[in-house]
Amino acid sequence: xxxxxxxxxxxxxxxxxxxxxxxxxxxxxxxxxxxxxxxxxxxxxxxxxxxxxxxxxxxxxxxxxxxxxxxxxxxxxxxxxxxxxxxxxxxxxxxxxxxxxxxxxxxxxxxxxxxxxxxxxxxxxxxxxxxxxxxxxxxxxxxxxxxxx
Length: 149
What we know:
Structural class: mainly beta
Shape: globular
Number of helices: 1
Distance between the termini: 45 Å
Number of domains: 1
CATH class: Mainly Beta
Strand order of the largest sheet: 1-2-9-4-7
Strand content: over 45%
Low-confidence stretches: none
Number of strands: 10
């Protein structure tokens, strides 16, 4: 897409390095539990901020809790076009010392320094679309620990 002045701004796919990392994490979270559709950051596309998006396809658990020195947004959207407000499943996420059960399409704002993670895709009736983005050119996990749950 970079043959034109703005073609480089149309980002398609996932860099090979990220595909390899995703394949390794699928081993611990469950094969086929999610499918990343797009990934970019300032390393792969200079000048852009971190963004990733994809689909949650079945129940799984990511027990890692971490924080960042920057804000993060996590979007979760159900795929029932007749009821777009419904998540089509149930996801539990830890924010700080709180557990939240998500059953509606939403955007979660995670302020800098707030530990989060331990995402449990507890129920997936239909695919759930997700995205994550930060106002920074890279995504870095800090203070990463395994949840005790």
